[in-house]
């Protein structure tokens, strides 16, 4: 039986006569489930369009920028018009969906907010190389679009919104390479998505994942932070940090770097010794979801309290699986998901097992299940 899932491979569904979920949906709930699926499908479509732009060859990217600038000279909302013409032409369906999901509400960011960031000032001009890890600098061109903050859900149907921004004069930023691939970069997205996590840090702090050390630097600056333990498993990342970056920290006496697997570290740690723990072990929501699920399970089991980088984006990605599973099971496209080595099939199976005793009848039942709060609780059970 082929999957009707809009996000995942067709092989993710396996027909078995086992135990279906308890779905007793009234007419309003049926309609709402279809609306959810359509909204997720439209959101995926726009994500694919923007990902194609963001990963496009440099020449094509420049063409989009030039078209946007040209439009800006002749129209009040020229940047938006220029990019939408480039991305979707005059396709009315594309323009309608783009408008519904706020694609085109591009924001011009002030370069000074980021150039005046204390860690930016500290790193300015620094380049280095340790084994297969390199610290270098990259740039956004003037008016080049980039994802500026978390993907998040809005409205009754949890429409996924991706906030995009640009700099009028371009922008240079440090980037860490591992084996010639970008491992992480200190871009506006990184800074903006960590603001709340940095604000919450206090006492004895643990950060899971090192990267360029931005989070550790920022929280070590706070008077109400006594110590910062950085848990990182990659010795080359640690070596470059300790050689070129840590010596510049004004409060390096607060910093301790521990080379260890993050989940193993948490399992043996006493939560009473940690006042705040921040997890940043992933590049995006897709590779972050499996790690997030493992950490949420450990958080519930061991009593740790964690905050997670781009958690709303990860929950939006998890919501896709939940909505697809509800739709396929209600339409009897599948009765059960088998345990499997395939990550998507495995996740469907685990979500099914976590939900098989829950009864869903009304629109509100489904809406509540798909909320960020419920998905956080579900993540601890998967």
Q: Which labels suit this protein?
A:
single chain; 382 residues; 5-stranded parallel beta sheet; 15 helices; 48% helix; disordered N terminus
Structural notes for this entry:
The protein has 382 residues and is α/β, with parallel strands linked by helices. The chain has a domain at 108-185. It has 15 helices and 16 strands. The chain has helices at residues 27-54, 58-74, 78-88, 92-100, 111-115, 118-123, 188-200, 214-220, 235-245, 262-268, 285-302, 311-330, 343-355, 363-369, 372-381, and strands spanning 22-23, 107-108, 128-130, 133-140, 146-147, 152-154, 159-161, 164-166, 171-178, 181-185, 203-208, 225-232, 255-259, 276-279, 306-308, 359-360. The strands form five sheets. A five-stranded parallel beta sheet has the order 13-12-11-14-15, sandwiched between helices. β14, α11 (285-302) and β15 form a beta-alpha-beta unit. α2 packs across α3, α7 packs parallel to α8 (214-220) and α11 crosses α12 (311-330). The two termini are 25 Å apart. Mean pLDDT is 89; it is low at 1-18.
